[in-house]
Amino acid sequence: QVQLVESGGGLVQAGGSLRLSCTVSGRTLSHFVMAWFRQNPGKDRELVAAITGSGVNKIYGDPVKGRFTISRDNDKNTVFLHMDSVKLDDTARYYCAMPEYWSDTLYPKSYQYDYWGQGTQVTVST
Q: What are 99-108's pLDDT values in tens digits?
C-alpha cells in the first residue's frame, strides 16, 4: 500500500536549478524520516539528503552541501529537493526513500531504508 513517486527530473544546464518532488501514498509522513539518494550505473547509491519528520534536522551528502535543500510538507505528504547551482556531477537518477518504522535517526545508508520510489532522472548539461 505504501507508494513513493518522484517527479521533477529532467535536463538542466550547469549552474541552473531544479526541484524534485516525492509524494507518498498509503501512510502519512509525520514522524517518518525521509531521504533522497542518487545513483549512476556501476556506482553505489549515495545519500543526497535526509530530513526528520518534523523537518527540524537535516543531513546532506558532502557533494551537495550548500547547493541542495531538502524540505517537506507533511500536510501534502510530499518531500522536496531543491537543487541549485547544479554541476555535471549531479547527473544521476534520484530516488526518495523512507523507513518502515518511524524514527528521528537520519540514516545515511541506502540499506537502512525500506520503501523506495522508481526514481527520476536528472541530467546536467554544459
A: 999 888 999 9
Sign of the C-alpha dihedral, residues 110, 113, 114, 117? negative
Give the residues of the chain that fall short of pLDDT 50.
Answer: none
- Answer whether 47's CB lies under 8 Å from 65's CB: no
Contacts of 93 (CB under 8 A, 6+ apart): 9, 38, 39, 40, 119, 120, 121, 122
SS3 112: helix
Q: Which residue(s) pair with 125 in the sheet?
A: 13
Grid coordinates given for 74: 507533511
The grid coordinates listed for 37 are 539518494
Q: How far apart are CA 58 and CA 33, in angstroms?
A: 10
Task: Give me the pLDDT at residue 63, please.
Answer: 97
- What gap in Å lies between CA 105 and CA 95, rounded to an integer? 19
